[in-house]
Amino acid sequence: MKIANRAEVPPFYVMEVMKAAADRERASGDVLHLEVGQPSTPAPAKVLEAARAALGSDRLGYTDAIGIPELRERIALHYAETYGVAVSPGHVIVTMGASGGFVLAFLAAFDVGDRVAVTRPGYPCYRNTLEAFGVEAVPVPVGPETRFVPTSRLLADAGPLDGLILASPANPTGTALTTDELADIATYCRSNDIRLIADEIYHGIEYGVQVPTAVSIDPDAVVLQSFSKYFSMTGWRLGWMVAPDDLVRPLERLAQNLFISPPTLSQLAAIAAFDATDELDGNVARYAENRRVLIDGLGAVGLDHFASPDGAFYFYIDVSHLTDDSQELCRIWLDELGVACTPGIDFDPELGHRYVRLSYSESMADIAAATERIAEWVSDFDSNPI
Fold first, then answer.
1. What are the angstrom distances between the C-alpha of 370 and each of 30, 318, 361, 363, 376?
2. How far, in Å, CA of 379 to CA of 386, rounded?
3. Which domains does the chain carry?
4. How many angstroms separate the CA atoms of 139 and 59, rounded?
């Protein structure tokens, strides 16, 4: 029987690593997880309390396709409280996670054959989803010379574009755009009729900076956010968009047909997430300490070639002095050390063989133990070459 060409989409390699790590856990029980980009903490206590209350009192039927009014209003208020920018609840669209938001945004904004820029390295699901929809994902190479963030000059080098997917803070590097850098890119996009889709799912996880939101800079941008990262609600599968006027109704029609509605229980509980900042900021303080432990421990053995992350919970480390096959290196570290990491080929098909992504969202004890194991292995590398 026929299988559609779009089903030949490449794998999301971090999920493959997670599967291998789970197999090892079942066999030996010993894995330290630096591969997966999710908080090790559950949802905030106030969210769990709200969920229990909803289970006992709400029918949990379908909601509006773009979310319950109470949550959309609370998200709009979040932008006023956090960024000092006014957002109409009518422009807020609640989604099945940020991933569901990207599906809606890509389908609403781009046609088959359009050219949409994605950074290289960058989150692989942008590229893979665009290409599954028949949209050309145009790589924009970024590197240490620009702190792994794009510039308007790099976009100009990519030729005519219909869209740009921009993440700040970014996965896998953790680097973020300044207000001036974001404004420069937004101006370039408006001048060249390029739809800007801003991935802001790591906002709130920031180290000494406040990352600007595209909502305050470009009224034509589509902004994606999620309850998964800062709000520590990955499995609740809930996110949101702030959409410009011209896309609100198209996005609603697509949401009606593709998803019917976001998860009702998750929506009712998520309203309380915005009142749990003390608990959530405690998580960020832990990430900051984990970040310091990795910088100190790995830097001492020469694993210090990376852009210092402004936010998120990742290091994207150049390991080319150890190997030209990061996938094999990650296999060795999992098999020999019990440390799961993600090879850079997930994020950069051309140069990713030289890089490894480490996530530091787990407990401080696990991050310290993983750092010690990797550092010891690197110290012995000359006697144990790949």
1. 11, 18, 12, 11, 10
2. 14
3. 5-42+277-380 (3.90.1150.10), 59-275 (3.40.640.10)
4. 46
CB of 242 within 8 A of CB of 218?
no
Pair of tokens at residue 19: 């599967």
pLDDT tens across 307-359, in order? 889 999 999 999 999 999 999 999 999 999 999 999 999 899 999 999 999 99
| Cβ pair 42, 51 in contact under 8 A | no
End-to-end CA distance of the chain: 42
pLDDT tens digits along 149-191: 999 999 999 999 999 999 999 999 999 999 999 999 999 999 9
Amino acid at 371: T
